[in-house]
Amino acid sequence: MMTDVIFDYCDVLLDWRPRLALDGKYPNAELDAFFDRSAEYGFWHYDELSDLGWSEDRIIADYAAHHHADTMDAGYPVQLFRDYFDRQQLALYDMIDGMPTLLHDLDAAGVRLWGLTNFTAKFVHAAHRKFPWLGLLRDTVVSSEERIHKPDPEIYRRAIARFALDPATTAFVDDKARNADAATAVGLNGIQFLNAAQVRAALGL
Questions:
Q1: In this predicted model, what pLDDT tens digit does every residue of 134-165 receive, in sequence order?
Q2: At a CB cut-off of 8 Å and minimum separation 6, what does 100 contact?
Q3: Which segments does the entry list as coiled coil (predicted)?
Q4: Which residues face 192 on adjacent strands?
Q5: Do 196 and 111 share a structural domain?
Q6: Which of 66, 180, 187, 190 would give a disulfide with 167, using CB separation of 3.0 to 4.6 Å?
């Protein structure tokens, strides 16, 4: 069994649904446009910049610069983003099925647990307040604080150094194959997350 396991947060530990922060507050068509993954300057573009350390004020200003009120009331597109930031804790829907039990069982077996996430410190703190099981993680490296994100090899090296890990006996679990592969490339044991049972088996529990 591994001595240490590092977990990604979104779609591994957390069922993160950003649209929940705005559902019912705006028409569905406007939310479809806001969360459209193909939009050049849409939500997902700024979500990545947020993970890289952009402040909420900077994101709103840049979003405003790229969105003119051609089809909506003046200020409406920008208010959408402001409301998202005000209500974003609602996007933390739940923990992924089976993950609280897996964390408990690993901790009980003496495995040290850690986090490494492309997320903001604000959101990480909100998640820990909402889901006490996350308290089993001894520490978390957060991309917004590091100003780099996965799959940059440097962020894994920082986690290894900060947590004083032996990469050969440390697993890293992430839902994205590229992130798991990048972890393997720096000496960790990368596991692509499919579900809690699959990770449990991969860790030999």
A1: 999 999 999 999 999 999 999 999 999 999 99
A2: 131, 133
A3: none
A4: 174
A5: yes
A6: 187
Same domain? 76 vs 111: no
Q: What is the enclosing helix (H) or strand (E) of 187?
A: none
Q: Which residue, among 144, 137, 97, 182, has the nearest Cα to 7 in the 3D structure? A: 137
What pairing do the DSSP bridges indicate for beta strands 4-7 and 112-117? parallel
Indicate whether 77 and 108 sit together in one domain. Answer: no
How far is the CA of 102 from the CAs of 121, 138, 150, 171, 185, in angstroms? 24, 15, 24, 14, 25
Are residues 174 and 190 in contact, defined by beta-carbon separation less than 8 angstroms? yes
In this structure, are 194 and 174 located in the same domain?
A: yes
- What does residue 78 show for φ and ψ, rounded to 5 degrees? -70, -40
Letter for the amino acid at 118? N
Judged against a pLDDT cut of 70, whether residue 74 lies above it is answered with no
How many domains does the chain fold into?
Answer: 2
Pick the last residue of a domain from 66, 91, 116.
Answer: 91
Domain span including residue 142: 4-16+94-202
